[in-house]
Specification:
It is built from no helices and 11 strands. It is an all-beta fold and about 130 residues long. Strand 7 and strand 8 form a beta hairpin. It is globular, with a radius of gyration of 13 Å.
Length: about 130
């Protein structure tokens, strides 16, 4: 049984940094892709970033987080991390880790991912 468990969320002030973690069991990150999505209150879940383990370009980021958020993957321990710097109030959301085997056209979409965590809350105060 595959499980993804996020951790590391919290309440921070604007400009601060947070590092989210996602620990996986029953799956490895040595192939396919892992991604982070987020969902703010009253809004749809949106793509944040993805890391593809093989083939060409490896990382993808939403324009809203490019240059501030960075994804890393530790395939040996089946963990992925989302380093979030210079946080803004608009980054407030529940952050979800996802894993799967998306094709190129779905790597930034929810339907590209089979497995999901339950999320961790990130709140950024102004």
């Amino acid at each position: 049984q595959v499980q993804l468990v996020e951790s590391g969320g919290g309440l921070v002030q604007a400009g601060a940094s947070l590092r989210l973690s996602c620990a996986a069991s029953g799956i490895t990150f040595s192939s396919g892709a892992v991604a982070w999505f987020r969902q703010a209150p009253g809004k749809e879940r949106e793509f944040v970033g993805a890391f593809r383990s093989s083939g060409g370009r490896n990382t993808y980021y939403a324009d809203s987080v490019k240059g501030r958020f960075f994804i890393t993957v530790d395939a040996a321990s089946s963990a992925t991390y989302l380093q979030m710097d210079v946080l803004r109030p608009e980054d407030t959301a529940v952050y979800y880790c996802a894993a799967g085997r998306p094709i190129q056209s779905t790597i930034t979409t929810m339907r590209g991912y089979t497995y999901w965590g339950r999320g961790t809350q990130v709140t950024v105060s102004s």
